Amino acid sequence: MSVTFKRSKASCAQNFSCAAHLKGLTWLDLSFNKIKKVTGLDELTELTDVSLSNNQISSLDGLAHLPKLEVLTLANNTVSTLAEVAKLRYMSSLRVLALAGNPVERKGAGSLDYRGAVLARLQRLQYMDFERVTDDERQAAVESNRQDLEKLRRADEQHASRTKAEAAAALHLQTLSKAGLDRVASTWDALLSDSDEDAAVVSRSLESLLRIPDMAEWWEGHATRVQERITTTVEEALTQQDTIQQETEGIDYALAHVRMEAEEEGKRVVDGFGEARKRLERLLEDDSAGLTQEDATARIRHVQKLNAQMCTELSEGEIELHETVRSMLSTYDTAFDTVRSARMKLVSDLFKSILELENQFKDECKSHLAALSESLSSDGSGAGVLRTNAGQVIRQSELDPDTLSLIQDREQGMSVVLRFRDARLTLMYAQEDAWKQQEAAREEEYVKQREQAELTRHRKRFDEIDALCTANDKELGDFLAMGLDHEDA
């Protein structure tokens, strides 16, 4: 399938939305459309030939996701750097490229340099700017651009490393989210956010405190201790999540098994009745059977009893299944509650330890400010100086007025420290409350939803049994009524 939008007046031609719905498109011509950016082609993965000549494209982002693209025409655009051209090196199917008329062609010492530079970066090309690429030409291009290719190789390694790290981080976040631990893991970031008034207080206070000599070192130690505690808690909680997951997979498998067995038994009962009814129908329809009216009535009443018996067996079987499932879910709930309680205690202990660490840091700040204030003395010139923990001497004149005021005025300094601590604790309590709400939702997801699903299934199954029995009763009653009417006649 091919589509052309040359000099199209439709605005969709500039963002590719005109063809975005054509999933099986293989050839697309969007030349002469004043396109500035390549977007919207990600879904058109069957494309093998794309013409974008005579537009205003300067970036080649948006093309690398076309795995089958073999021919790309970009003549007379605004591509100006080899770095943009190099982005096409990930397109393994690309064999034909037209770049003539772009600024990148004129930036080299000559067309030969430009052509060689492109061929070195895109070594799979067989045609470039409508000219065949020879093996000798390709080899010469590689030799003359070896230094640039080495830089690209290192860049590719870095890119691969970043991609791997990003994928691992994304997977870890996904794992944390699935385990309901994303809020716990992000607690430290939440205590430093600037999303509300308390966070703004934290930001301003921390900025003031970090200007005090030695305070950055104290703060770094505090941050390390809190983050290590969070990491340890998350790791332990993930282990607990594994237990929950195993319990969940076990209960789901067991439930599926008992339900399947009950369904097979129910089918056996229904099939048994079905065979009896079919035999009855054949007898009633067979004139040669020589059934008397009395005999036919007796047979119909017998099958009615079989229907009642079937309904009783199905109902009793469903009740037994429902009780079995409820018992299994109760056992699961108990196991889940045991792990959940341990998990709640683990995370609650984390927030308690953060509270202790925050108070410890507050006391450290208080002691440090007092020590700095006491260290202020007068040297021979009469200028105030203070001595840091590392023994460094700092003149009073080297401190900005606000920082000096915090050191000299203990009440003011402690006020900043307390505001900082109180605001962070407010953020921490909010994070803890949000996590508890998330845990309540997890209990709903893991336990309550299964209980509700079983209750819904149970009610539906009884409705089905009732409908089946009622339909059989009506049909057999009709048979009986027809026979009695015939006898009266």
Architecture overview:
The protein is mainly alpha-helical and 489 residues long. The chain contains twelve helices and ten strands.
Strand and helix order: EEEEHEHHEEHHHHHHHEEEHH
How much helix is in the residues?
Answer: 55-70%
Report strand %: 5-15%
Distance between the termini: 74 Å
Give a concise summary.
This protein is mainly alpha-helical and 489 residues long. The protein has helices at residues 82-86, 103-107, 111-121, 135-144, 146-178, 182-185, 187-190, 197-209, 215-285, 293-375, 401-408, 410-488, and strands at 2-4, 27-29, 49-51, 71-73, 96-98, 127-128, 131-132, 377-378, 384-387, 393-395. It has two domains: 2-144, Leucine-rich repeat, LRR (right-handed beta-alpha superhelix) (Alpha-Beta Horseshoe); 188-488, no CATH class.
Q: What does the secondary structure layout of this molecule look like, with pairings?
A:
Layout: E1 2-4, E2 27-29, E3 49-51, E4 71-73, H1 82-86, E5 96-98, H2 103-107, H3 111-121, E6 127-128, E7 131-132, H4 135-144, H5 146-178, H6 182-185, H7 187-190, H8 197-209, H9 215-285, H10 293-375, E8 377-378, E9 384-387, E10 393-395, H11 401-408, H12 410-488
Parallel strand pairs: 1-2, 2-3, 3-4, 4-5, 5-6
Antiparallel strand pairs: 6-7, 8-9, 9-10
